[in-house]
Write the structure tokens for this entry.
Amino acid sequence: MNHEDELQEFIGPPIISREIEHRDRKRTFYFRELGTNESEAFLETILPKREKNGKAIPGALPPKHANARIIAKIVCKENGDPLFTEEEAGKVPTKLAIALRDASLHINGLTEEAKEEAKNE
């Protein structure tokens, strides 16, 4: 086994499943784990605008449809194909959309909780 194969075995598959509950029912959803460069570029499209020095602008809101962008980018079919277009993701009921968004961000290490977990591993 070469170095790349060993690394890929360690990293695991780029598709991660999570059970999501909605209206007292559970369903397994699949989520893409983004690579570092893809993740950083994607963050630019969903975070509120910042000042040139990187500081948050007080009262700045995330771009319009940020939740739909997150869901369309990360939630996928078992084979990795997108489950939703951005337009379809925008029609997902709000409570379910929030659960999918939160799982998507957590899986990709983009929440404070996920960052803390990574530090403690």
Remarks:
- The mean pLDDT is 85.
- Residues 14-120 form a domain with the rbstp2171 fold (CATH 3.30.2220).
